[in-house]
């Protein structure tokens, strides 16, 4: 039975690296996969999934108007799909998550989604909230805070190194903008600085 998986973590945990490795494992055995990523996230290039360690691959993109079920159904019509991968899954809509659940349930194709659980203010992203509610399996990918504890939170900084407490939930960036912390150090930074 195919399942919908949500692999979540804070920034710099290696989510994209794990996605790329998992897709490669299928492909190495002659199995076809498809990878989706958010259309507006072009840090590695438009329609690319890229990791900080230098791995990358082409990907199909999704935005709020994309019907992932129909897109995957069309791709499956071109030949068997062994697995669907979604990078930056926090940017999915609730409707997208239901579409991915239907891919697993009705097409019997496993779906592996990778993304952040919470934003820089400690709030769930809509896609992550829906995945936490609907995924068959939840897998936490761990990274560490500067103190050595598990990092579960992320803080956003401006170009001058100042902590940002308010703003749009979505502001794509990497190490130049975000730092992962354990809950204690995030709380100290966010509420006491």
Describe what is shown at a glance.
Helices cover 30% and strands 26% of the residues.
Structure, explained:
- By secondary structure, the chain is α/β, with parallel strands linked by helices.
- The protein has helices at residues 15-28, 68-77, 94-107, 126-134, 183-192, and strands spanning 4-9, 33-38, 48-50, 56-58, 60-62, 83-86, 111-116, 137-140, 143-144, 150-151, 153-157, 163-164, 178-181.
Provide keyphrases for this structure:
193 residues; alpha/beta; Rossmann fold; three-stranded antiparallel sheet; 5 helices; 30% helix
* CATH architecture field: 3-Layer(aba) Sandwich
Which CATH class applies here?
Answer: Alpha Beta
**Unreliable runs, pLDDT <50, ≥5 residues?**
none
Q: Assign the structural class, choosing from mainly alpha, mainly beta, alpha/beta, alpha+beta, or little secondary structure.
A: alpha/beta
Query: At the fourth CATH level, what is the homologous superfamily?
Result: P-loop containing nucleotide triphosphate hydrolases
Mean pLDDT: 89
Strand elements, count: 13
How many helix segments?
A: 5
Structural shape: elongated
Number of domains: 1
End-to-end Cα distance, whole Å, is 49 Å
Would you tell me which CATH topology applies?
Rossmann fold
Order of helices and strands: EHEEEEHEHEHEEEEEEH
The helix content is 25-40%
Strand order of the largest sheet: 5-2-6-7-1-8
Content of β-strand: 25-35%
Subunit structure: Homotetramer.
Binding site for ATP: 9-16, 87-90
GO biological process, one term: thymidine metabolic process
Keywords: ATP-binding, Cytoplasm, DNA synthesis, Kinase, Metal-binding, Nucleotide-binding, Transferase, Zinc
């Amino acid at each position: 039975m195919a399942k919908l998986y949500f692999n979540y973590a804070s920034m710099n945990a290696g989510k994209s690296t794990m996605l790329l490795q998992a897709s490669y494992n299928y492909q190495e055995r002659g199995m076809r996969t498809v990878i989706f990523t958010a259309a507006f996230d072009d840090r590695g290039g438009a329609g690319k999934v890229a990791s900080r360690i230098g791995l990358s691959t082409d990907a199909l993109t999704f935005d709020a108007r994309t019907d992932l079920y129909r897109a995957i159904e069309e791709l499956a019509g071109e030949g068997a799909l062994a697995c669907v991968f979604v990078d930056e899954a926090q940017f999915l809509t609730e409707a997208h998550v239901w579409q991915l659940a239907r891919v697993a349930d009705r097409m019997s194709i496993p779906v592996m989604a990778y993304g952040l659980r919470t934003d820089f203010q400690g709030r769930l992203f809509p896609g992550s909230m829906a995945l936490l509610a609907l995924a068959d399996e939840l897998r936490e990918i761990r990274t560490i805070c500067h103190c050595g504890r598990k990092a579960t939170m992320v803080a956003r900084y401006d170009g001058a190194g100042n902590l940002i407490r308010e703003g749009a939930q979505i502001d794509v960036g990497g190490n130049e903008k975000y730092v992962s912390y354990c809950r204690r150090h995030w709380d100290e930074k966010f509420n006491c600085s």
